[in-house]
Amino acid sequence: MGALSSYLRDGIVNHVLRNTALTSPATVYLALYTSDPTPAGTGTEVSGNGYARQVVTFTAPVGGATDNAAQVSFPEATGNWGTVTHWGILDAATAGNLLLFGAFTTPKAYSAGDQAIIKANELNITFS
User: Fold this and answer.
1) Contact 103/85 with Cβ under 8 angstroms?
2) Contact yes or no for 51/31 (Cβ under 8 A)
3) Cα(first)–Cα(last) distance of the chain, in Å?
4) What phi and psi values does residue 126 have, to the nearest 5 degrees?
5) Closest by alpha carbon to 43, among 80, 6, 92?
6) Inter-residue contact 54 to 63 (CB < 8 Å)
7) Three-state DSSP state, 128
8) In angstroms, rounded to a whole number, what is the distance separating the alpha carbons of residues 29 and 91?
9) For residues 2 and 126, what is the distance between their CA atoms, to the nearest angstrom?
10) What burial letters (b/e) apply to 95-112, b meaning 16+ CB within 10 Å?
11) Is 82 helix (H, G, I), strand (E, B) or coil?
């Protein structure tokens, strides 16, 4: 599944209904969160201990649905990341704007030596 952030929701409305440009990011990044990012982007993203957002690409949509086109591998944790419960798609490697977000089916705790890997087609986003 997946939900729109307030930033993207308002951008789409302005683009479609108010003739205001919405620039597509050249690259989007997958982020991991230990709490719900919420539409306002107020969740707690993992930080430190070797963590960094990773580039993610998506398949062409079919019926409003898309998946990550390739495996996304995060760096090995060098310390405790906490329990990852949510994901977010952002338009920058650091800072930037939250675009989409959702919850993982099964939360997972990451500590030193663990590596988060999202296999191809595991991140499913559907618009209806």
Assistant:
1) yes
2) no
3) 10
4) -125, 130
5) 6
6) no
7) coil
8) 6
9) 7
10) ebebbbbbebeeeeebee
11) strand
pLDDT, position 128: 79
Q: Which residues pair with 5 in a beta bridge?
A: none
Amino acid at the residue 40: A
Tokens of 42: 């107020």
**Which residues, given as ranges, of the chain have pLDDT below 70?**
1
State the DSSP H helix or E strand holding residue 104, giving kind and residue range, or none if neither.
Answer: strand 98-110
19 HSE (CA, 13 A, CB side):
0
Q: List, as one string, the DSSP characters of 24-80.
A: PPS-EEEEEESS--TTTT-S-B--STT---EEE-BPPPBTTEEEBSS-EEPPPPSS-
